From TrEMBL:
Gene3D superfamilies: eoxyguanosinetriphosphate triphosphohydrolase domain-like, Hypothetical protein af1432, putative deoxyguanosinetriphosphate triphosphohydrolase like domain. It comes from Algoriphagus halophytocola. InterPro entries: dGTP_triP_hydro_central_sf, dGTP_triphosphohydrolase_C, dGTPase, dGTPase-like, HD/PDEase_dom, HD_domain, PHydrolase_assoc_dom. Signal peptide: none annotated. It holds the Pfam family HD_assoc. It comes from the Bacteria. Residues 62-249 form the HD domain. Keywords: Hydrolase. This is DNTP triphosphohydrolase.
Length: 448
């Protein structure tokens, strides 16, 4: 793969021969601005990162997490861009700058969680389990193709994000380079055999009805394949992944300390190996508060991890372009062992804490309940009309105005209909999903 093509400024919908004419902003800065002002991004404000929002202390939502990942991504991208421009001076003649490469990574990182449903990873599992196990989900199986069923059985936030970013519904029309940097898992859900040695095949990055979109993007950027069904990652996707890994490792730990689940002393012990000779315990004494000390340690740790990731990126950049390198940067940097220790403790004391597990359990009930009532109503209307009731009619009136309610029937494949239903449910905020669930189940009434 060649950087000249990988950094293309083209977009979906461009006419042949179109040349971007942005003067004040680069095309990749346009991407960033479009994302910031989009409805799906704003909805991240009320989507859980790890903890339900407490009354007294600040913890991260998906929105604040995404903004911070984007900030780290910009730093990673700019530093990597300076390396690339030094190594490949011809990029400068094409107008590519380190700032533009930073903008690609920043924009892609800004969207990295945009496809996540309410209630975090519990929401993903709840959608998958509904179509795998619930009678109201399993009833669709005879009507869809095998590869479509694989999508429904394995809801993936990354694939949902790609779907949203290329959808005409939201009008984002991002550059191919930003979309490719966003895609950590460049494969569909159903493949003949997964190569467990390749990080990029751990999950999947697009649903089967976005295959043509992905193929078009890959052709423009010159992305090559590792198999007939799987592509090599765009090299900048490694930086987007690293930005997310850095932020959730360090900042989930900070939130855990803020919530009292991890002691300040344990937090310091975990961060000190990353800081190395920059760690000075004398500076942690009064009059500085615990919050101030946490902020200083976090900033120093993130700065060191950025430097280490850029160094590893520079070391393996050629292998990335050849498709030979396929690991997470944070797994092989000097601080990898320290990050693993943070992850191990976070699993034990944060992700399995009572407040988090209660949130996840509630999320399963809410997502399953919403899918059940809407799925039943749709199935009854189009695929079992004898069962279509007045209650079903009332439920379907709650769907968005632009929901595709025409053209379905027993002889029509309902996969696009089900994708639209999942779009509706997964796009909800936590609060909206909970309130709607209460109302459709008769637990509360509008205005109560």
């Amino acid at each position: 793969m060649k950087w000249e093509r990988l950094l293309s400024r083209g977009r979906f919908g461009d006419k042949p021969g179109f040349i971007p004419t942005q003067v004040v902003r680069s095309e990749f800065e346009v991407d960033y601005d479009r994302i910031i002002f989009s409805a799906p991004f704003r909805n991240l404000q009320d989507k859980t990162q790890v903890f339900p929002l407490p009354e007294q202390a600040f913890v991260h939502t998906r929105l604040t997490h995404s903004l911070e990942v984007s900030s780290v991504g910009r730093s990673l991208g700019k530093a990597a861009g300076e390396f690339l421009l030094g190594k490949y001076p011809q990029l400068s003649t094409n107008g590519i700058t380190a700032f533009e490469i930073g903008a690609i990574v920043a924009a892609a990182a800004l969207t990295h969680d945009i496809g996540n449903p309410p209630f975090g990873h519990a929401g993903e599992e709840a959608i998958s389990d509904f179509f795998k196990f619930h009678p109201a989900g399993k009833c669709w199986e005879p009507h869809v193709r095998t590869e479509q069923l694989a999508d429904l059985h394995n809801f993936e936030g990354n694939a949902q994000g790609f779907r949203m970013l290329v959808s005409k519904q939201f009008g984002l029309k991002l550059t191919y380079a930003t979309l490719a940097a966003f895609t950590k898992y460049p494969r569909p859900s159903m493949i003949a055999q997964r190569d467990i040695a390749r990080r990029s095949q751990k999950k999947f990055g697009f649903f089967i009805n976005q295959l043509a979109d992905f193929e078009q993007m890959g052709a423009v950027l010159g992305m090559e394949k590792s198999s007939p069904e799987c592509w090599y990652r765009h090299p900048l996707a490694f930086l987007v992944e690293a930005a997310d890994d850095i932020c959730y490792s360090i900042i989930d730990l900070e939130d855990g300390c803020t919530m009292g689940l991890v002691s300040f002393e344990d937090t310091v012990k975990l961060l000190a190996p990353i800081l190395k000779d920059k760690f000075d315990p004398k500076k942690l004494k009064e009059p500085r508060t615990v919050a101030q000390n946490l902020g200083a340690l976090r900033a120093l740790a993130i700065g060191e991890l950025i430097k280490e990731c850029v160094d590893v990126f520079a070391q393996y950049e050629e292998s990335m372009c050849k498709g030979n390198f396929d690991k997470a940067l944070t797994d092989i940097i000097p601080s990898a062992k320290a990050l693993k220790a943070i992850t191990d403790l976070s699993v034990q004391k944060i992700y399995r804490s009572q407040v988090v597990l209660e949130k996840e359990a509630a999320g399963f009930q809410v997502i399953e309940g919403l899918l059940e009532v809407f799925s039943k109503a749709l199935y009854h209307q189009f695929y079992d009309p004898a069962q279509f009731s007045g209650q079903d009619k009332s439920i379907l009136r709650l769907l968005p105005e632009d929901f595709p309610l025409k053209g379905w029937g027993a002889e029509v494949n309902p996969y696009p209909l089900l994708r639209a239903l999942v779009d509706f449910i997964s796009g909800m905020t936590d609060k909206y999903a909970l309130n709607l669930y209460r109302r459709v189940k008769g637990i509360s009434f509008p205005g109560s």
